[in-house]
Amino acid sequence: MSSQTWFDGLKRSFADVPVGADNSISTTEFLEASESLSTLFDVLGSKAFTPVKSDLVGNVKKLNDRQQAAPAESETVQALSVNELKTKKHTASEGLLWLVRGLEFTAQSLRRHIDNTSEKLADSFRGAYGDTLSKHHSWAMKPVFNLAMGAAPDNENFYRSLASIPAGAPVSDETKAKIQEQLTREVKALENIVVILQKFQEQPEAKW
Predict the structure, then answer these.
(1) CB atoms < 10 A from the CB of 82, how many?
(2) CA 17 to CA 12: how far, in whole Å?
(3) What architecture (CATH level 2) is domain 24-206?
């Protein structure tokens, strides 16, 4: 029997976030999934990833605060942003912009691993960072995030952590297969939501 994995314990998977026929994304489930995904950086096992996680969690809080302040106007992520912008404020909308950037980085990092499991995880994260967040970060932020990328565990230890297997113990082929299946499902759903929100943010009503 394969081990219980990190995915099994998630409060919300991106694969379980409701997406409407019009691509509207349910706010509560989206924020739960984003916060759940942020715990992946705990699994990576280095304090160097703390700024990466903090960035995601901080932006989730901005959206959650707006949702709590105006629940009737925030049932979907898109409605939350548009309705906030009508008040001439953009705290949550700016938080969403950075949250989507962080989610895109995470999705690309994991996609690189899925597509090339022989690539070192640190290289997967470093490559994804260069293609996503790096272009939005200041010269002061880049070294902080580059340090985190280099602190990623090797692939075997990554799987051990995802399956809560003690250091040095073998990871069975069955457990690896389960993790890869769950990872692929999660990343595919995350990629879809990132694309939807990026397209939304290109619309005039989403700008400030």
Answers:
(1) 17
(2) 8
(3) Orthogonal Bundle (1.10)
**CA distance linking residue 106 with residue 129, whole number of Å:** 9
**How do the domains of the chain map onto residue ranges?**
24-206
Chain segment 110-144, per-residue pLDDT in tens:
999 999 999 999 999 989 888 887 788 778 778 87
Both tokens of 57, joined, read 């969690």
| Tokens 């998630």 belong to residue | 10
Q: Report which of 49, 54, 51 is spatially closest to residue 150, judged by C-alpha positions.
A: 49
Place of tokens 């912008």: 85
**pLDDT tens, 150-184?**
778 899 999 999 999 998 899 999 999 999 999 99
User: Secondary structure of the chain in the HEC alphabet?
Assistant: CCCCCHHHHCCCCHHHCCECCCCCEEHHHHHHHHHHHHCHHHHCCCHHHHHHHHHHHHHHHHHHHHHHHCHHHCCEHHHHHHHHHHCCCCHHHHHHHHHHHHHHHHHHHHHHHHHCCCCCHHHHHHHHHHHCHHHHCCCCHHHHHHHHHHCCCCHHHHHHHHCCCCCCCCCCHHHHHHHHHHHHHHHHHHHHHHHHHHHHHCCHHHCC
Q: What is the pLDDT of residues 29-39, one digit of tens each?
A: 999 999 999 99
